[in-house]
Amino acid sequence: MSALHVVIIATPGFSPFHFSVPAIIFDKAMPEPGLFSVDICAEQPGTVESDIGISLNVKHGLERLDSADIIIVPFWEHPETRPSPMLLDALRSAWQGGAEVVGLCLGAYVLAYAGLLNNRRASTHWEFERDFAARFPEVRLDSNALYTCDERLITSAGTAAGIDCCLNIVREHHGAALANRVARRMVIPPYREGGQAQFIEHVIPETTRDTQINDLLGYLRRNLDKQHDIDSLAGFCSMSRRTLTRHFIKATGMTVGDWLSAQRLQRSQELLETTDHSIETVSALAGYKSPVSFRQRFRARFNVSPSEWRRTFRGPNLLS
User: Fold this and answer.
1) Model pTM?
2) How do residues 180-191 score in pLDDT, each as one tens digit?
3) Type and span of the H or E element at 287
4) Kind of pairing, strands 55-58 and 46-49?
C-alpha cells in the first residue's frame, strides 16, 4: 500500500499550534514509516508568517493539492475574510477529484466559503458558532461535535479538538490499533468522550434592568436547593402568573424554567469542580429531586456523566 499523501496548507497568520497538530500526527508521531507522506504548501510559496511571528519557508504552491489524498486547512485567521478564488477553486477541484478535505477549528470557514459544506454536517470552535451559522445557513452546524465527517469533508471544533480529528483520520484509514499507538506516543487519550458542550460557556443573565426580576434572581440563586413553582414566585414578586412570565422573559430572554435549569446545571458544574461532595450531595445542593434525574439531565446537556465531568476538570482521584 502506497503512503497517503497529506498536504497541509499554510495561510498568512496561521496558528503554530493548529498547524503542528497534523504535521506531528501524520509524520513524527507515526510509529511506522510509509503510511503517510506530508507536504506543506501555500498559495504563494516562500515565507509565511504565523500569528505570533514564527515563519515557515514553504516550497510548494497549491499545485501540490493535485496529488493529495488528504488536504488540511489547519486554521483561518480572519473568519470574516473570504479566501481567494485561487484557494477556493483548488479545494473544490481536489475534493471533486477524490481527496479528503479537512478544516481544523476555524479552517472550517475556508471549506464553507468554498461551498463544500452546503447541506452537510460540520463543526467549528464553539465561540464562533453564531457567526458561522449566520454566514453559512446552508451548513448543518453541529455545535457539540468534536469533529464531523460528511462525504470526505472533515471539520473539527476548536484547538485541541484538531488532535481528536486527526487521530480519527488515522483510525479510519489504518485502524484503531495504529491510532492508539500514535496517541500513546503523544501521551494523549486516543478517544475523548463527550463533545465540546463540556467547554462552552453559556451565559446566564446575572442582572437585568428590571429591579423586581433582579430581586427574584437573587432569591432563586440563594434557594436553588428548594423546589419552586410559578404561583409562589409570582407571590414573591407581587405579580400575577401571566405578568411574572412576561416580565421574566423580557428581562432575561428565558422562561423561569429554562433559567432555573441552566442555573442548576451551572451550580452542579461548580460543585463538581471545586468540592469533594458526593454526586448525591451535589444533586441535592443544585436543586434536583433525585440523583437519577440529575444524572439524566447532566448527561443530556453535556454528553458526559457528572463523574466524568469531575475527572475531566479535577482529575481521577476524587469521590464519585
Assistant:
1) 0.67
2) 889 889 887 766
3) none
4) antiparallel
